[in-house]
Write a structure and sequence with these properties.
Elements lengths: L5 H27 L20 H26 L6 H33 L3
Helix pairs in contact: 1-2, 1-3, 2-3
Length: 120
Protein backbone atom coordinates (compact mmCIF):
# COMPACT_ATOMS: atom_id res chain seq x y z
CA UNK A 1 0.00 0.00 0.00
CA UNK A 2 1.07 3.55 -0.68
CA UNK A 3 1.34 6.30 1.83
CA UNK A 4 -1.51 8.38 0.41
CA UNK A 5 -4.45 9.53 2.45
CA UNK A 6 -7.90 8.02 2.16
CA UNK A 7 -9.44 11.34 3.23
CA UNK A 8 -7.41 13.16 0.58
CA UNK A 9 -8.52 10.69 -2.09
CA UNK A 10 -12.16 11.12 -1.10
CA UNK A 11 -11.90 14.92 -1.08
CA UNK A 12 -10.20 14.91 -4.50
CA UNK A 13 -12.83 12.59 -5.95
CA UNK A 14 -15.77 14.55 -4.51
CA UNK A 15 -14.41 17.86 -5.82
CA UNK A 16 -13.69 16.46 -9.29
CA UNK A 17 -16.98 14.59 -9.55
CA UNK A 18 -18.83 17.69 -8.33
CA UNK A 19 -17.25 19.74 -11.12
CA UNK A 20 -17.99 17.06 -13.72
CA UNK A 21 -21.59 16.84 -12.55
CA UNK A 22 -21.96 20.62 -12.68
CA UNK A 23 -20.68 20.82 -16.25
CA UNK A 24 -22.85 17.88 -17.30
CA UNK A 25 -25.80 19.69 -15.71
CA UNK A 26 -25.04 22.76 -17.81
CA UNK A 27 -24.87 20.49 -20.87
CA UNK A 28 -28.25 18.97 -20.06
CA UNK A 29 -29.74 22.43 -19.57
CA UNK A 30 -28.32 23.52 -22.93
CA UNK A 31 -29.62 20.43 -24.70
CA UNK A 32 -33.15 20.74 -23.30
CA UNK A 33 -33.50 24.52 -23.59
CA UNK A 34 -35.77 25.93 -26.26
CA UNK A 35 -34.12 29.34 -25.91
CA UNK A 36 -30.49 29.93 -26.88
CA UNK A 37 -28.24 29.32 -23.90
CA UNK A 38 -25.77 31.93 -22.79
CA UNK A 39 -22.10 31.30 -22.16
CA UNK A 40 -21.01 34.52 -20.49
CA UNK A 41 -22.36 35.34 -17.05
CA UNK A 42 -24.91 38.15 -17.10
CA UNK A 43 -25.48 38.08 -20.85
CA UNK A 44 -28.36 36.88 -22.96
CA UNK A 45 -28.16 35.53 -26.49
CA UNK A 46 -30.63 37.23 -28.81
CA UNK A 47 -32.78 34.46 -30.34
CA UNK A 48 -33.19 36.52 -33.51
CA UNK A 49 -29.42 36.34 -34.10
CA UNK A 50 -29.18 32.55 -33.78
CA UNK A 51 -29.46 30.81 -37.14
CA UNK A 52 -30.49 27.44 -35.63
CA UNK A 53 -31.28 27.46 -31.90
CA UNK A 54 -31.45 23.67 -31.57
CA UNK A 55 -28.08 23.14 -33.27
CA UNK A 56 -26.54 26.05 -31.32
CA UNK A 57 -27.72 24.57 -28.00
CA UNK A 58 -26.58 21.09 -29.06
CA UNK A 59 -23.10 22.44 -29.86
CA UNK A 60 -22.98 24.10 -26.44
CA UNK A 61 -24.09 20.86 -24.78
CA UNK A 62 -21.35 18.87 -26.52
CA UNK A 63 -18.79 21.51 -25.55
CA UNK A 64 -19.74 21.23 -21.86
CA UNK A 65 -19.81 17.42 -21.90
CA UNK A 66 -16.34 17.28 -23.45
CA UNK A 67 -15.11 19.77 -20.86
CA UNK A 68 -16.51 17.62 -18.04
CA UNK A 69 -14.70 14.44 -19.11
CA UNK A 70 -11.28 15.33 -17.65
CA UNK A 71 -12.95 16.17 -14.33
CA UNK A 72 -14.53 12.72 -14.22
CA UNK A 73 -11.19 11.12 -15.14
CA UNK A 74 -9.30 13.15 -12.54
CA UNK A 75 -11.85 12.10 -9.92
CA UNK A 76 -11.62 8.44 -10.90
CA UNK A 77 -7.82 8.52 -10.78
CA UNK A 78 -7.92 10.51 -7.55
CA UNK A 79 -10.03 7.78 -5.94
CA UNK A 80 -6.90 5.64 -5.93
CA UNK A 81 -4.81 8.32 -4.22
CA UNK A 82 -4.76 6.26 -1.04
CA UNK A 83 -2.73 3.63 -2.93
CA UNK A 84 0.10 6.03 -3.54
CA UNK A 85 1.09 9.55 -4.28
CA UNK A 86 1.38 8.92 -8.02
CA UNK A 87 -2.42 8.66 -8.36
CA UNK A 88 -2.96 11.91 -6.49
CA UNK A 89 -0.24 13.60 -8.55
CA UNK A 90 -1.66 12.43 -11.90
CA UNK A 91 -5.13 13.51 -10.80
CA UNK A 92 -3.87 16.94 -9.72
CA UNK A 93 -1.94 17.46 -12.97
CA UNK A 94 -4.97 16.50 -15.04
CA UNK A 95 -7.11 18.82 -12.95
CA UNK A 96 -4.63 21.68 -13.36
CA UNK A 97 -4.56 21.37 -17.15
CA UNK A 98 -8.33 21.05 -17.29
CA UNK A 99 -8.93 24.13 -15.16
CA UNK A 100 -6.42 26.57 -16.59
CA UNK A 101 -5.58 25.83 -20.23
CA UNK A 102 -8.91 24.00 -20.49
CA UNK A 103 -10.83 27.16 -19.63
CA UNK A 104 -9.13 28.99 -22.50
CA UNK A 105 -10.01 26.11 -24.83
CA UNK A 106 -13.60 26.33 -23.62
CA UNK A 107 -13.75 30.03 -24.58
CA UNK A 108 -12.08 29.27 -27.92
CA UNK A 109 -14.64 26.54 -28.65
CA UNK A 110 -17.53 28.81 -27.73
CA UNK A 111 -16.18 31.49 -30.09
CA UNK A 112 -16.27 28.87 -32.86
CA UNK A 113 -19.90 28.11 -31.97
CA UNK A 114 -20.69 31.84 -32.11
CA UNK A 115 -19.13 32.17 -35.56
CA UNK A 116 -21.09 29.18 -36.82
CA UNK A 117 -24.53 29.93 -35.34
CA UNK A 118 -24.79 33.65 -34.60
CA UNK A 119 -25.43 36.24 -37.27
CA UNK A 120 -23.82 39.59 -36.61
Amino acid sequence: MGNGSVAGAVIMAVCCFGCGLTFDGIALWAKKSSKPVNFWSGTQVDPDKVTDISAYNQANAVMWIVYSIPYWLAGAIGCFGFLGDIFAMVSAILLFFTCFPGAFLLVWQYRKIEVKYLSR
